[in-house]
Amino acid sequence: MDKYLGTLRQFEILVAVFDEGSVTRASERLFLTQPSVTMQLNKLQETLGIDLTYQQGRQIKFTEGGKMVVEHARRLLTDYYDLGRRVTQLKGIEQGALSLGLVTTAKYFIPYMVGEFSETHPSIEFQFNLGNRQQIIARAAADMDDFYVFSHPPKDSELATVPMLNNRLVAIAPLNHPFAKRQHLSLEEFCKEPLLMREAGSGTRLSIEQFCAERGIELNVRMTIESNEAIKHTVMSGLGLGIVSEHVLSHGGSEGVAQINVVGLDISSRWYLVYRQSRPLSPVARAFLVSVQAG
Ligand code: PGA
Fold this sequence. Notes:
The chain has twelve helices and 13 strands. It is α/β, with parallel strands linked by helices. Among the domains are: 1-91, Arc Repressor Mutant, subunit A; 168-267, 3-Layer(aba) Sandwich (D-Maltodextrin-Binding Protein, domain 2), CATH 3.40.190. The strands form three sheets. Strands 3, 4, 5, 6, 8, 9, 10, 11 and 13 form a nine-stranded mixed β-sheet that branches. The chain has a two-stranded antiparallel sheet with strand order 1-2. Strands 7-12 form a two-stranded parallel sheet. The radius of gyration is 22 Å and the shape is globular.
C-alpha cells in the first residue's frame, strides 16, 4: 500500500513541514538534513501524483491537495503512534520504549535522570526529541511524546506538571574580559555590554525577556544564536556576553568562560516533567513518572 500512497515517514515529514511552516525547522524537529526532507517531500508528491507544496518567495505554501493530504496524514500518524503505545503496553514494562520531548537546555541534566532509571530498567529504549520551547510545545500539542521537559510549561489544563530541579540563569563572559576579574558588577554595567541572545521561541530567552520587561530593563542584544553551546563558544571568541542556564555550565562544561556575578540579575525558574493527562500511561511511562516524582 505504501507504494501507492507514500510511507508513514514521508507523511510524518509532510506534517512537520506544514506545522513548522519551513523545511529547515521541520528538518531540525525530525533530526534530518534539509536535503533529505526535500527529497522525501518530492518523492511523496511523485507517488501521489499531485502537487502538495509550492514556493512563495522564500516561504513554502501548501496547495489545497497538500492540505487535504496533511489532514489525512495526521489521522494516520495518530493511529500509528497509538498502535505503538498499545503494543508497548502489551509487552509490559521491561521491554517498552519512552519518547521524551526536551527543550534544548534540558539535554544537560535529563540524561543523568534517565541513566539512573535505566540502571533498574536496562531494556527500556529512550528517544530524546530536542527543540526549543516553541518546538516542544508543538510536539506536546500534537501528542507526540510520552513526556516533555520545560522550564515554562505551556498553559494547558490538559497537561500535568511534576516539578524537578531549579533552573537558575547565570551571566557569562570570556576569560579575558575585564568583568571576569570583578567580584561583582551592576546590572547597569552588564546591560551596556553586547549580549548574545537565544532565538525567539527559546524558554531561556522568554525568562530573560520577562525579567527585563518586569523591571523596564533594556539589553544590548548583538546577536541571536540558536544553541546554548554556540552561545558559549561565541562568548569565548569575545563577541559578547551571554546568559545561560547554570546546567549549561555545570553539565555541559564551563571551560573558556567565566561566570560573572551581576548584582540583581536573579533569573530563575524550575524544570517540570510534563505529560498529557488524557494519554494512557504505559507501564514504562508510569514507572518513569514514579522515579521522577521520587527523585
Ligand atoms: P530553551 O528552553 O532551550 O528553549 O531555551 C529552556 C527553558 O525552557 O528554560
